[in-house]
Predict the 3D structure of the following.
Amino acid sequence: MNINQSLEKYADLIVNIGLGLHKDDKLSIRMSEHSLPLARLVAKKAYQNGVSDVRLEFSDDTITLDRYLEATDEAFETFPEYLVDFNENLFKDNYNVVNLYAPNPDLLKPADPARIARWQKVAGKASKRIQHYTMQNKVKWCIAAVACPAWAEAAFPELPEEEGMQKLWENIFMATRVDQPDPIAAWEEHDLKLKANRKFLNDARFDRIHYQGPGTDLMVGLVKNHVWEGGSGFSEKGDRFFPNIPTEEVFSMPDADRVDGTLRATMPLSVRGQIVDKFHFTFKDGKVVDYDAQVGKQILDDLLDMDEGAKRLGEIALVPDNSPISNTGILFKNTLFDENASCHFALGAAYSENLEGAAQRSEEENRKLGMNNSLIHVDFMVGSKDVTVSGIKEDGTEIVLLKDGDWQI
């Protein structure tokens, strides 16, 4: 594998497929020290496409952890308002955003969970007023993964660092179709397949979705006038983009008040630099009424305590177990990848694109229609070859959608 050639193709994919950047666009790159080589290529290709300005938002894992370990308690009580103003002004000035994400799944393991929870709530409340720029696709946004030593060690603990990094990059390029002769053509073909599944689901007008598997028997009502989305989406200005690279999902909006039953997660969840594993939820009338985890229960406690909407679902996503990422057999310990290997849900905020007319209504009006609202949006995986997913119409007609890990439609 020639890493430099592959990074060039990856950057080209992010700029032209992920964000669809063109003249008069501007770009904000969120990055860490591990992302710099890719960020430079993305910025160069963005300028070549006519982008007028590229801004960098830098973070560092060591500094992030040291803040939780060493800063005073007062440091976690207020969020700088000027940062929210700054980001809102960027969005208003036609800056689109890419997050070149180099995750460390265990970064905050040494930190005090109470501090993490407190800061997440403070930062979430402060940033609430700009959440809609991405949740409603007012700007183009994209998340793409970058290999780093900590992630490689988490995914391949048996390998030396250099071999682990090599294997991780190989799998990133495979999952994102960068390893193919023409990645952009491959993504166009992939988009057509996702759109075909999306069309079937939208035409079917299911009332609810039933999940059955080991430890899982869950009925998820869908909001009326729901919309299934998948693959490329469109910004408020009509520009096409892909929010996630990679993506294998077709997703829609559950009714926040019509979820009943029990589910068991089929993969660990990496969230807030910590791992939650072997966990389950029980829902009644849409709300989590019971839950437990063998690893990381305190993290679930803090997530569910974020606000009322954190205890309800905001997204339902269908992904075949027979997908490129799942077929690697690798547990990436990174939600961007693991969620595209498995059906998944999200606790918290819903996307307005999944409900007709949502962007034109108030938050209160949408909530009455079943659209969840929260400071968080946390995906977790509930899919495998052993989980059968069926769609049920209002008249009781039932159609099996996923069985034995593959689409049945």
